[in-house]
Amino acid sequence: MKREIIVTDDGSVTIYLPEMQETYHSKFGAIQEANHVFMQNGLALTKGQPVAVLEIGFGTGLNAFITLLEAIKSGQIIDYTGVEAYPVEPDEYVKLNYAQELGDGEHTGIFNRMHSAEWEVVIQLTNNVTLTKQQKFFHDICDVEKYNLIYFDAFGYPSQPELWSEELFAKMYAALKPGGILVTYACRTVIRNAMKTAGFITEKLPGPPGKREMLRAMKK
Fold this sequence. Notes:
The protein is an alpha/beta fold. Helix content is 28%, strand content 27%. Helix 1 crosses helix 2 and helix 6 crosses helix 7.
């Protein structure tokens, strides 16, 4: 499927799929969305404690990279797992300007290494951050009580409603440790209901730029 690099409103880029009319991140600002949804309303809740993160949709690596930068600043120990069925190619990820836009060009090498690293292997990115990339479909996830935090960043409901099903959220619920948190940019009623049926306690939160609301869900 054809993929194009486009610039979002905050100057950071994302990948656009013309056939699906879908973007990997918000057109209103890729970095702004990642910071608001996954850092401020997700990682910040872990209060610097050691945390195991699962990302649903490793994609451009933006969420993983910002998490890494936060860990470098705070010293927080993070074990990061990113699941992706269709990895970004080398000629694509070298065009992603996240390090430059975040004012952290010195870590461009680590960003590229995140993409070039072997799949299914634990990679030590820094003294306190590890990364494991898993190339598989989300429905093949079968972890049990392994993660403290899930970044649910799948393509939107109109494009792939099957990725927002009760079945998949049941897998997410099982993968979280008790008290674990799932955050996502989406906030449709059908998605919230699927989360509740899977066992989550849900709450609506103000969304990132260009989006009124988002969802956060907690495992009982």
